[in-house]
Amino acid sequence: MDLVDRWVALAGPHTRHIGTELDKRYGEPHRRYHTRDHLTAVLDLVDELAGHAASPGLVRLAAWFHDAVYDPERADNEERSGRLAARMLADTDLSGTDIEEVVRLVELTATHAPGEEDRDGQVLCDADLAILGASPGEYAAYAAAVREEYAFVPDEFFQAGRAQVLNGLLALPRLFHTPVARERFEERARNNIETELALLNA
Questions:
Q1: Which of 113, 123, 168, 170 could covalently link to 53 via disulfide, CB atoms 3.0 to 4.6 Å apart?
Q2: pLDDT of residue 159 exceeding 90
Q3: How buried is 177 (Cβ within 10 angstroms: 0-12 exposed, 13-18 middle, 19+ buried)?
Q4: Does residue 152 register a pLDDT over 90?
């Protein structure tokens, strides 16, 4: 099933134009990691973790929008993605309350810090960060793709900024919040991050 058909299966045929627009956004040429493949991986893991979610359908919608706006030269992509979700979903039969929840979830991916009771936020954040717990080879490809997205940043500034992000992740009491993701990814993710930090500081 291609991405647009997958969107239609979730949101209905009357919203195909939204799925088509989102598919086009994830295919933008400046993207190297935040691509259709990343979206597919997040959607697949949301499906797998859906039993933990309170409203899995809303989590799936938020997954579609979480990187819909992606400009590596800006720091407000999550906020802008949330605004896009609000605007596009207003054209559907979703209630205002549900749209607000989708926007909240999208914006939560700026911090990846869901609350203890935020089961929907936990599922989305875990799915988005699962790449951190991938095999060392997959993680290295992810890190290289992120560097390509920031090709306009000189090495010394990129290394400092990336190290700050990675150290911030390591400082979190836990990277993953659902039991399944924590068991599968937590240890390997910390090992991958520490390896990348060592390479940045070499």
A1: 123
A2: yes
A3: buried
A4: yes
**Cα separation, 2 vs 29, whole angstroms:** 19
Torsion on CA atoms 150, 153, 154, 159, rounded to nearest 10: -60
pTM above 0.85, yes or no: yes
Structure tokens at 14: 């009357």
CB-based contact 67:38 (threshold 8 Å): yes
- Determine the Cα–Cα distance for residues 148 and 159; give it in Å rounded to an integer: 13
Ranges of H-type helices in 50-91: 56-65, 77-89
Based on its alpha-carbon atoms, the radius of gyration of the chain, rounded to whole angstroms, reads: 17
- 3-state class of 82 per DSSP? helix
Q: Is 134 helix (H, G, I), strand (E, B) or coil?
A: coil
Helix (H, G, I), strand (E, B) or coil at 105: helix
Residue 80 near residue 67 (C-beta atoms within 8 A)? no
Chain CA centroid to CA 95, Å: 24
